[in-house]
Amino acid sequence: ASPKRLKRYLLNKNKTVILDEVQKIPSILDEVHRLIENEGLQFVLTGSSARTLKQKGVNLLAGRALTFNFFPLTAFELSEDFDLKFALRFGMLPKVWGKSEPKRFLKSYVKTYLKEEIFQEGLTRSLPAFSRFLEAASFSQGSLLNLSAVAQDCAVPRKSVENYFEILEDILLGVRVPCFTMHAKRKVVTHPKFYFFDTGVFRSLRPKGPLDLDENLDGIALETLVFQELRALNAYFEFDYAISFWRTESVSEFEVDFILYGEKGLKAFEVKKISKLRSSDFRGLKAFLEDYPMAQPYLLYGGERELREGPIKILPISQFFKSARQLLE
Question: Which helix (H) or strand (E) covers residue 326, if one does?
Answer without folding.
Answer: helix 317-328
